[in-house]
Amino acid sequence: MSKAGSFFLYVCLLAVMVVFWPSLTQAQTQQASCTFHTFGLSPTPQMISVRGVNDYGTVVGEADFGPNASPRFRAFIHYSGGATTYWVPSGAKGSAFGGRNDAGLTTGAYTDSSNKTHAFIRKGSTLIPVVRPYGAGLGGINRYNTVVGTYFDSNGNAHGFKRYSDGNVIHLSYPGAQATRAYAINDSGVIVGFYNVKYGPERGFIYKNNQWATLQFPNAPLSTELYGVSNSNVIVGQGQAHAYLYKNGTSKEISVPGSAETQVRAIAPGGLIAGMADLTHGFLASCH
Predict the structure, then answer these.
(1) pLDDT in tens, 76-98
(2) Cβ(62)–Cβ(76) under 8 Å?
(3) pLDDT class for 198, splitting at 50, 70, 90?
(4) How confident is the prediction for the chain on average, in pLDDT?
């Protein structure tokens, strides 16, 4: 998992991907060619966690203002023009945004004064509660307002889910896995996330129409986490301490120049990538 502390940490192609699987673990690391734009938030938090991005360069996520701040965790929206807004419901202990589509709908969750988690879809100032499954953390949202996320069962095991705009829910559990977490969905319904078996490493998954495939990034035997998928099926994620993009059987590493650690967390439908540089700044990147 990411090093960034967060109450929302756990909250929160397909036709060919099985064919590509045997070659994935043998792939050599390549460096992606990227154009970067880094940004900070104001007022300035101690750390930020980018969660989603749309084609307009609007980035959403969570800001950590440290243990002495109240509330410590605050949902943020950073606009392409440079402005940042924070949002925490009155009386809440913390909040986070999980994804944003091109129509301006934002997913998220907040913790109330009784430590209960409430998931929602936000449009303007209107909150649409998401109560199935209860206590879920929401991730990506596509153009059809279908969202994905993660919830925990009575035994504390994580499961992914897909929620349609009409409220119907499909539960997602990778076959044989102890935990499954879903983070992103594109307009074609391709879902990505990661899973692990008991005491086993994290592995990325790709899912559509009851079909599953596994993706492991190069040089990442202990952890591969998938966080985003574009409409052209470019996948982004984290392979241990390295950020990657994956397309057509090739994995490429993403590194922000001058940054000790690059973490990628989202990709817009059109391919704009977002993440964190050293956990203190966000970035937008166009890569190939």
Answers:
(1) 999 999 999 999 999 999 999 99
(2) yes
(3) confident
(4) 90
Per-residue pLDDT tens for 220-234? 999 999 999 999 999
First-to-last alpha carbon distance for the chain, in angstroms, is 26
- Enter the tokens of residue 149: 């996320």
Per DSSP, what are the bridge partners of residue 161?
149, 171
Domains (ranges, CATH) in the chain? 14-287 (2.120.10.30)
Residue 186's CB: how many other CB atoms inside 10 A?
Answer: 25
SS (H, E, C) 114-182: CCCEEEEEEECCEEEEECCCCCCEEEEECCCCCEEEEEECCCCCEEEEEECCCCCEEEECCCCCCEEEE
Closest CA relative to residue 234, chosen from 179, 175, 164, 186? 186
